[in-house]
Amino acid sequence: MENGAVYGPTTEENPGPARGARSGLAAYFSLGRLRLHRRLFKVLQLLLSLLAFVCEEVVSQCTLCGGLYFFEFVSCSAFLLSLLILIVYCTPVYDRVDAVKVKSSDFYITLGTGCVFLLASIIFVSTHDRTPAETAATVFGFLASFMFLFDFASMVWEKQQESQMRKPEATRRTEATEPLNA
């Protein structure tokens, strides 16, 4: 028997570049793992922290630079962390790691980033020279920190909803009148 006769019916000659609804880079990117409101929070966190960082970078001089430097570090870190979390949720990386650990990490990263970003925005507001770039940076900083905190609140709410769904209904205990091993 020839090799062509054995392998012919099960293989394709040339499958072509696009074989389905999604091909190329789009095949590796999926937003379906996050609910719509969580996706919106994640994208807003990413954009607002980037805008806060860019506006802060435009500042050319400062009188009290400690607040500016702290805000710079926090806004850049917030942008990178939110980008990392979004990449993990939207790529096949999510399938390769433990989903519980991803959600737990997202929970704590979102809480920590929101609190530190809020603190950095407050410090920057109290130390800035009131230039338009600094004002814009603080506005975006506050908005970004609120997005992180709103996202955290939505995660807490979702956890409460899941725990209420898992709770068994109150069952009545019946006492055994005879011992089980008698």
List the SSEs and their pairings.
Layout: H1 3-7, H2 36-58, H3 65-90, H4 93-96, H5 99-127, H6 132-166
Membrane topology: Multi-pass membrane protein
Keywords: Membrane, Transmembrane, Transmembrane helix
Organism: Panthera leo (Lion)
Descriptive terms for the model:
mainly alpha; single chain; 182 residues; 67% helix; flat
Task: Characterise the protein shown here.
The chain has 182 residues and is mainly alpha-helical. The protein has one domain (34-161). The protein is 67% helix and 0% strand. The chain is built from 6 helices and no strands. The chain has helices at 3-7, 36-58, 65-90, 93-96, 99-127, 132-166. α2 packs antiparallel against α3, α3 runs antiparallel to α5 and α5 runs antiparallel to α6 (132-166). The longest helix has 35 residues, at 132-166. The radius of gyration is 26 Å and the shape is flat. The model has no long low-confidence stretch (mean pLDDT 84). Residues 33-160 form the MARVEL domain. Residues 163-182 are annotated as: Disordered. This is CKLF like MARVEL transmembrane domain containing 6.
